[in-house]
Amino acid sequence: MAETNPAPIPGFEHLWIVIENGVATVGITQETADAAGDFIFVELPEVGRRVRAGEPLGSVETTKSIVDIASPLTAVVAEVNAELGEHPRLLNDDPYRSGWIVRLRRES
Question: Domain of 59: which CATH number?
Fold first, then answer.
C-alpha cells in the first residue's frame, strides 16, 4: 500500500481506493471512521460475487448506526478482509492498511 493515505473517491467520499495490478483495494477513510464511532460488526460480501457501482457490498455496524457499504465500481469480489469479522475495530485503528474491507477485480 502507498506511503500516504489514499484520497476519498469522488461520489463515495467515505471510501478510499487503491488499484494495483488490476485489483482495487477499498476501505473507509479515517474521517469516516472517526465520525462513525466504534465499529462492532462488519458484514462482508462473498468472494466471487458480482457487484455494480453503487450497489451495497456489505455493511458496518457501529455503536451509533448500521450503514451499507456501496461498491465504488462494477466488478467481482476478489478477496475480503476476514480479519474484520473478529476485529472490526481495525476500521477505527488502521483503516488504510490492516482495516481495508474488500478487493475488487474488474471483469474484462
Answer: 2.40.50.100
pLDDT over 60 at 3, yes or no: no
Say whether 70 sits in a helix, a strand or coil: strand
| 75 belongs to a structural domain | no
Alpha-carbon gap, residue 7 to 2, rounded angstroms: 11
Return the half-sphere exposure (C-beta side, CA atoms, 13 A cut-off) of residue 93. Answer: 8
Closest CA to 72 of 2, 3, 7, 5: 7
Provide CB contacts within 8 A for 34, sequence distance 6+: none
pTM of the model: 0.88
